[in-house]
Amino acid sequence: MEENYCQSCGMPMNEEFYGTEANNEKNQEYCIYCYENGAFKSLN
């Protein structure tokens, strides 16, 4: 099984942790902690 990693923070991901686009589709490049609703989250 191929393992994906967040391109922002490097966290190992499966489908449960994929970020989301503005249209609610899954984004396989970034995790939910870095990317949500089509935008990167603030680090503040």
From TrEMBL:
Residues 5-42 form the Putative zinc ribbon domain. Pfam families: Zn_ribbon_2. InterPro entries: Zn_ribbon_dom_put. It comes from the Bacteria. This is Putative zinc ribbon domain protein. It comes from Clostridium magnum DSM 2767.
